[in-house]
Structures are given as C-alpha cells and as structure tokens.
Amino acid sequence: MVEKLVGTKAMRLALITILLLVLAGCAPKVRLFPDGTDPLEEQVLQGEGSEKVLLVNVRGLISDAPDQGLLGRRPSLLQEVVSRLRLAEKDAEVRAVILKINSPGGGVTASDVLHHEIERFRRESGKPVVALLMDVAASGGYYVALPADRIVAHPTSVTGSVGAVFFQPRVTGLMEMAGVRVEVAKSGRNKDMGSPFRESTKEEQDIAQTLINEMGTRFQTLVRQARDLTPEQMDTVATARVFTGTQALDLGLVDRVGYLESAFALARELAELPEDAKLVAYRDQRYANDTAYNASARLVRPALLDAGLLGTALGSGLPRECGVYYLWLPGNE
C-alpha cells in the first residue's frame, strides 16, 4: 500500500514538473506528426548514376497559405514547391526537374507566382523542366505547367479549364430566415462589393466581370505564347472547358500522352543524360521502399476533395473566401 502511494505521488510530481516546463517554454518539443519544419533530404527513387532528375509534387489547392489540419500544420504548396526548386538550382548534379501536377488550381496570385518561380528556375539554372499531368491538372494546375519545356499528360488526365472565376458566397436567404440584418456604413458605393450579406448591384456585376475578363485574358495569352496554338484551337480553349489527355494533345495543350517513365525519359533526353540517371525527391521524412508515386512529401489531399475546399459553408462547394481563382470546381454554375 505504501509503495502504491509513493508511486502515485511520483507520477503526480512528474506530471506537475512537465506542466511547469511547458508553461515556462522549456519542455522539449515532441511532434507526433511531421509539420514541415524538418530539413529536406534527398531520397533516391530509382537509378544508380551520378546525375539526377528531381521529382517535385504539385498537389492540392494552389495557395500561399499554410495548411492547418487535425494532424498539424504544413507549409503552403507554394512554399513546398519553391523550396525544392531552390535546392535543385544549387545542386549541380540535378540536371532536370519533373513537376508531377495533381491540382484543380487555386488562387490567381498564388498560381501566377508559382508560374513565375518555375519560369525563373528554368531561365537562371538552364535546367529543363517537364510537367507530368496526373488525375487533374486544370485551370491553375495547367497554368503552372505552362513554363515547362514539355508537358506530358496521362490518357486519363483532366486538364484545360483555361479561365478565371470570381466566387461570391451569399447568405442573404439564410439571414432573412433567421431575422438577421447587417448594417454597413461605407465611404463609396462599391466599398463592400462582394459582400455575402446582400445581392450585387448591376454596376458591381459589371466590375466583377471586367476583372474576370482581364484575369482570363492573361491566362489565355500565356497559353497562346507557350503553346503556339492556332486561332481555331484558341477558340476552343477559350471556352474554359476541360479536356482529357488525348483531347489536350490534339489541341496542342500537351506534347505527349504517356506515363511517368515517358516524362522521365523526356527529361533525360532534354538534359542529355544517360539511362542510368537517378530519379530523386526531396522529402522531409524517410519512406521505406519509396517510389515516384509517393505523393507524401506533403499531407495528401485528393485533387477534387481539397482541404481548402472542405472549409466551405455547409457543403456549398465554393471556396470559403470571396475572391478570384484559377480553379476548376465541378458542380458549380
């Protein structure tokens, strides 16, 4: 009985000590899940040569906002991709990069910044880039593929959706049912444009359409410059519809329909590398029997069920923030 009491007191003392250390900020950090703070390490996926091709996953909603989920916090997709390009730029043995894209797009600015960073990497490093389109590489997902030297799509890829969209969530009907009103004092008649608490005016609708037209035109211009399409092809692309990999090839949006080995062979060809060149990835954690199909360099988020889209109001299917997106989101008109 005495031993039991002593053991209980020791346990309580240990718990109190740990609590005091935590409050004092002195406790060692214990992480049950990776949060992106560990340094990136190279992992060989295949090959035995000295020269390397880097595989970079571009997966999920394109954003510069960190992911905050139930299992911890991760850097944004923009940060994850750019950090890997920076390391590849410094490594003389990395001779080419494959971007494995599985994304329905995302924010206009985040997509444009990533496009700029990929373009800058190619220009300053002189290393070729091959984009490999997976399940979905639509809208912003295709936007970030445009700077690549070559684009390879799977036969079952969904791509295209070349255009912009402006989401404005509305809760006016719900507020009326609940008997709730919002009063706004503003310095100009368009100051609260996009407010979810009222219907848009005709002037606001025209302003939003002008803004969307400008963003959409920018996207189309980049496609025209990168892909050298005919006017007839551009007319089809400008409808902002999606295409299969084979349809995209016929339209000139991609260079080849194939699989990972096709993209790897193309990267080796562009960089003039031997067949035994390594395919490598930068991971922040180690995986046994790792392969190029491992997308776990960041928290896995299916392309059509993105964590950023799960934060929507009552399953409306719309992004939780009002704004302009290069985003393909099926089911919304």
From TrEMBL:
Residues 123-273 form the Peptidase S49 domain. GO terms for molecular function: serine-type peptidase activity. Keywords: Hydrolase, Protease, Serine protease. The keyword Ribonucleoprotein does not apply. Pfam families: Peptidase_S49. Coiled coil: none annotated. InterPro entries: ClpP/crotonase-like_dom_sf, Pept_S49_SppA, Peptidase_S49, S49_SppA_C. GO terms for biological process: proteolysis. PROSITE patterns: PROKAR_LIPOPROTEIN. Gene3D superfamilies: 2-enoyl-CoA Hydratase, Chain A, domain 1, 6.20.330.10. Belongs to the peptidase S49 family. This is Protease-4. It comes from Paucidesulfovibrio gracilis DSM 16080.
